[in-house]
Amino acid sequence: MNLEKVVFGFFIVLAMTLNFGFFIGDIDNVSHHHVYELYAAIIVSLIATVLKFGDRTQLGAILLSTSLAADLQLITAAILWAAMEGQMDSAHMMVYIVSLSGGALMANFVSVILLISETITQRR
Amino acid sequence: MNSILFMILRRLRRPLILIIVSFAIATMGLTLMPGVDDKGQVWYMTIFEAFYVISYTASTIGFGEVPHPYSQAQRLWMTLSIYLTVIPWFYAVGKIITLLQDVSLRQAVTAERFANNVSKLQEPFFILCSYGQSASLLAKILDEKNMRAVIVEQNQERLNELELVDSKNRTLSLCADAKLPESLIRAGINNPYCSGVVTLTDNDDVNLAVAVSAKLMRPNLCVIARADRVDIAANMASFRTDHIINPYELFGEQLAMRVHALGTYILHQWLTGIPGDTLPPPENPPRGHWIVCGYGRFGKAVVANLERENLTTTIIEAMPDLTECTQCVVGSGTEAETLIEADIENACGIVAGTDNDINNLSIVMTAKALNPKLFLIVRKNNRDNSTLFRKFRADITMQPTDIIAHECLAHMLTPLLAEFLTMARSQDNQWANNLISQLVDVVGETVPETWAVTIDAKKASAVNEYIDSGMIVKIENLMCDPVDHEKELKLVPLLLLRDGNSTLVPDKDTVIVYGDRILFCGTYDAKTAVPSYLNNSRTFNYMMTGVEVPDSVIWRWIKNITVN
Questions:
Q1: A80 close contact with B: CB closer than 8 A
Q2: Could you say which residues from 35 to 74 on chain A have a Cβ atom under 8 Å away from some Cβ of chain B?
Q3: Which residues of A touch B18 (CB under 8 A)?
Q4: Do B457 and B439 form a contact (C-beta atoms < 8 A)?
Q5: Per-residue pLDDT tens for B355-412?
Q6: ipTM of the complex
Q7: Could you give the CA distance from residue B225 to residue B214 in angstroms, rounded to a whole number?
Q8: Coil, helix or strand at residue B311
């Protein structure tokens, strides 16, 4: 067992689960989606991205790109939230934010699948 | 560039994570701290506002307390945040700056940039594996001749010299050990435009290593290597190194050539000279008794070659045991006694051939004082001493590095030139003198251009069409001026290579057949004019017949009318 691997797997899975936690619920119901959950999802996703830096293998490259895709959508959602607050119907705004986080969820999902597939192909 | 980006990212992993975590904690905490606005109401920052405040705090910009003056709780948290975020921020900035100044990273960047530039080269180039005295001269001549060179040199100081040199083209250079195959690959040995590798370091092992790796990577690539030791030269020959240059033997040979065939020597120097230089002045060493000072590798080659010319020699050597010199006057030659002992009064010439420039100058100065009629040949080792040698004005100043450079050039310009020069050496002096006067009549005294023309379907399609249609093309047809066929281009055919047989200075009436290779020597204008007709049937037709055939239908029609 390797602590580095534990941390690596932890952050990747946590990024996905937090993202999922934010995403789940009625898409236009503001009370189903907490801002701190999005915040946590962004932070964890960023950390996961940095952890993936510097792996030169093909798998490492794909892992990094899925993370970058997730970051892009989560940060766009956060910017939208910050910029549109008070200027737009909150239910309407929430639809945009949650759908963006749904996109990020897909990317995080792919990332976790890759991680699992790599683990399974390793014989030891 | 890719690998470098990843290297930077990997090294920045720790500072980046530190920044993310510290910002996350500070931002999060700030949103949780209750504030009181001017109306006495409790308010909380949004995440965006908190992130904004933390961002300008961490980067020490500090806009103050927005949107309302902070409460005690918020100030408490801000105090904590300052220490929490500013330190990782500076840590990361410091790390980035250290990384940019990192020697290995900068080397990686320059190497990568160099390899990139080399791979972009779209014209033939040579790889020079050193930038010493001969290689720098070679690089200069190549540059003058508009040929590209890529330099791999281990010593950064020498490369700095390269940057100061005035050159027409940018010469690419890399500070690396040429012995490593990696360096050769970076220098573009696998590039299809690479036409040869030249290794001229004064270290035989390096030259050997470069020659071996070059031959392994590209067996058909032309490799020119310097070898000072005989066993290394034999080793190089065993894996078919194309040209092996032994500067000592070369020096001796050239000296012998000067003694017995000055014309041939001048022809050699002239054809491989720097463009713009003039014909070297003829200095004919006298025949008689010679004194050779220094019996090292140079001295040995000189003595061997002089004796082959049936000239008698007396050797002056300071350390006869070391140099295996059986019959010699012991001494350095710099003092009058040794020179008198060597019978300087009755000698006709002296060769000061030690590896010390100051001693060499001292020898010839003393010798000249003792016998003013002596023919003085002095060896110049270091180019930095040029001023002294110019001041002294010996009859012949021979510099090994120059000789090496000229010899390399003969092989690099075109393989046919090397072939021509080898054949020219077996001709007598009269022949060479005649050829020189013939060349001077046509191209003048400045160093001419030499180039090869191959008559085949690809490189000379117009000429080939003519031959195919059964017509006779002679060499003199190729020498017409494509602008005015009455005139001749300023060029002379030096060599004709047909089916492996070569003819020196072919006759102008020689009929050209398919596959012929001709070496021309001429002015720069002539060199640029030749390609204009080789592949252009219309121009070539004009040169053959003197008639301009109209191209367009209307002009043909008009011409037909006027003729009828």
A1: no
A2: 35-36, 39, 43, 46-47, 50-51, 53-54, 56
A3: none
A4: no
A5: 888 888 888 888 888 888 888 888 888 777 888 888 888 888 877 788 888 888 888 8
A6: 0.86
A7: 11
A8: coil
